[in-house]
Amino acid sequence: MTFLAHEPLTLMISSRCTDEVLLDDRLQPMAAVRRAMKDAIETIQLADEQIFKVWIHEDESGTGADQNSWDRCVSRARNADIFLVLYNGNAGWPGTSERLGDHVGICHAELEAAYNKTPSKVRTIQLPAIEAESGSPNQRFQTYFKRQKLSGPQVKIGEEAIEWAGKLAVSALLDLARAGVGAGSKGGYFAGEALQWARLDYEHRRKVTTDTVVGYLKERSHGRKTGKLPNAVVMPVAGRSVAFVCDCIPAALSTPTARELVGQPFLRDHEISIALPKTTGGPVHLIACQKGVTEAQALRQLGFPDAVVVSAPFGVYVADDVQKIQMVFIANCRDETTTRHHVQRFLQWLDEQGEDRLLAQRARSRRRIADLIGREQADSSPAGSATRPKSR
Fold this sequence. Notes:
It comes from Thiocapsa rosea. By secondary structure, the chain is an alpha/beta fold.
C-alpha cells in the first residue's frame, strides 16, 4: 500500500493586531477577526484533508517584540505559500527602538517581502483606510500599496472580512494550481517601482538609489546634509556625530563596470574630512547594492581579508580595526521601499547589538587618521609649502 504525504499550504494573515473593527455589533481588535479567519480557513477540506495551515502573530504571543520577532514575521511572509493582507493603511509596529525603525512598519515590511518573493500569492481584503500624516510611515505604506495596484474586496465589518478570507484562500489555491507553485515562485522584482528602477541606466539608477538613502538618513534622527558633500549625511550615533557617505553599486557586484563606479571610496577620506564639521567622526561609507552581496565580495572591495565582517539581513558590514575603515553594503536595494527598509534594518542592528558605540569609536579614530593624512598631503605638495603660514 502506498501512502501519499499531505502537507497543507501555509497561509499568513498580516494586519495590525490592535486596530478596531466592527464585529458582532461591537468594536473589537483586529486580532479577533484574524482568529476567526484562521478557524474558518483551516476548516476547508478536500477529500477529507486539511488544505491550509494558517499563521497569525497571535500564535506567538508569548514571544517579545524584538529584532528576532521582526525577522521571523518577515521570513514567514516571504516563505508563506499564500499571503493575505487585511489592509487599513496602518503600517504597523515600527521596531524595537523609539529612535529607529520609524519609517517602515512591520505590516509594510511583510507585504514587501511577500510581494517581492511571489506577487501571485498576495491577496488583500481592504477595510476603510486610516488618515495618514504627511511623511509618516503610514503614508509611505499607503503609497506603496497603491503603487502595487493590489485589488481586493472592500469591506466595512469583520463578518464580511471573515467571509471573504475563505473565498480568497480558495481562489489563491486554484491560481497556484493552474500556474504551478514552482513557476509562481519565480516572481521577483519585475513589477511596480522595482521594474521602473530596473529600466534605468547605471547613472540614473545610481542617483535615485543614493538619493533615497540620503533622504532616509536625513529624515531619521534629524540628520543633516553637508553643503560640500551632497551624498554625505551627518547624524548622531551613540551620542556622537558621525558622517555617512552614501553611494550605490547599480548592478550585481560581479559586474566590473558597476562595481568600479564606487571602487574603494575610503582612499579619498582625507579629502572628504576637509568638508566635515570638526567634531564629526568618519566617514563611514554606506553603499546601496542593487542586488545581493556576499562577505567575500565586501572584503574584495575593502582590499584585504583581515577585518571585522558581519553578514546580516540588511547586507554586509565590514570594519578594519587598524585603519578604522568602515563600509556598509546594503543588499537588494531594488526600489524605495526595499532600500529604506534595509537601511532601517542596519540602523536597528547597530542599536540592538550595541554596535553603534563601536562604530562611533571607529569613526572618531578614522577622522583623526584622515585629518593627519590630509595635513601630510598638504605639507608635501609644492602649493601647500608655498602657502602654508610661517610659525610664530
